[in-house]
Amino acid sequence: MFAELRTLIAVSRWGTFSRAGERVGLTQAAVSGQMKRLEEQLGFSLFERTGRSARLNVAGLRTVERARAILASLEALGDPEECSAAGLGTLRIGAISSLQAPLLARALGPLSRAYPGLALQVVPGLGLNLLDQVDSGELDLAVMIRPPFDLPAELAWDLLARDRYSLIAPAALASEDWRGVLTAQPFLRYDRLSFGGRQVDRFIRSLPFPVTLSIEVPVQSMVTMVESGLGVALVPLAEERQPLPPGVVALPLPGVDLARETGVVRPRGHRLSAVIDNLVEILREVSAAP
């Protein structure tokens, strides 16, 4: 029944069977089947169905709240006994891969020293998956790129940094205009399954000139790819705080408002809100440090 309860929460979160299915990796028909099985197991209807639409009824809304509590209790079973005794438990932190080493890793030490009775668990993933895990209660927070859509009212966003993109290219092109470079050179695509990749993809499609699309790679691999002569890439300036290799330069994009916002998404009213507040402040200090 746990899978059905997670899907029910997704339906409540996203409003329709089809949108919920996109978030949990199911077809609309599979979501509908799970909801029917759940209703049969519970013995009452969860939805008001009119034609092709289905809306949670009063019993369904009540069941969603109980489902959240059940799944939260299930997750709490994995807390180490000694941490539970200290009243803290485990803080489950989701993080996209490009932020784990440069940002999160430097913040966990100070957090552990501030809360010695707190166990920490870091879960990697893509932004969309991490967002769903925070929403369902599987994660307590996620460090990620801001989504291109509004968050539900139950979740809060804490901004950490806003980093402008620049075009990294071979050093021989240092004196060239970024538009000419982007037109003439193969473009290394940012992973389009990520929020940052979708943002860059929208920008490239908005340009009034053609771009030759090349390899699609994670953002943390792009400097190496450019250094190897495989093309040029758009990356946030935060990725360049470490010195670029001698054969790579960063070309600014004057007049272009293209920036990546990184931050923390977390549930409102969380039992460890004070701990998460502290972590956010530590992450902000780390983000501002050279």
Description:
It is a single chain. By secondary structure, this protein is α/β, with parallel strands linked by helices. The protein folds into three domains: 2-76, Winged helix-like DNA-binding domain superfamily/Winged helix DNA-binding domain (Arc Repressor Mutant, subunit A, Orthogonal Bundle), CATH 1.10.10.10; 81-161 and 261-288, D-Maltodextrin-Binding Protein, domain 2, CATH 3.40.190; 162-260, Periplasmic binding protein-like II (D-Maltodextrin-Binding Protein, domain 2, 3-Layer(aba) Sandwich), CATH 3.40.190.10. Helix content is 44%, strand content 23%. The chain contains eleven helices and eleven strands. The strands form three sheets. Strands 3, 4, 5, 6, 9, 10 and 11 form a seven-stranded mixed β-sheet that branches. A two-stranded antiparallel ribbon has the order 1-2. A two-stranded parallel ribbon has the order 7-8. It is globular and about 70 Å long. Mean pLDDT is 87; it is low at 80-86.
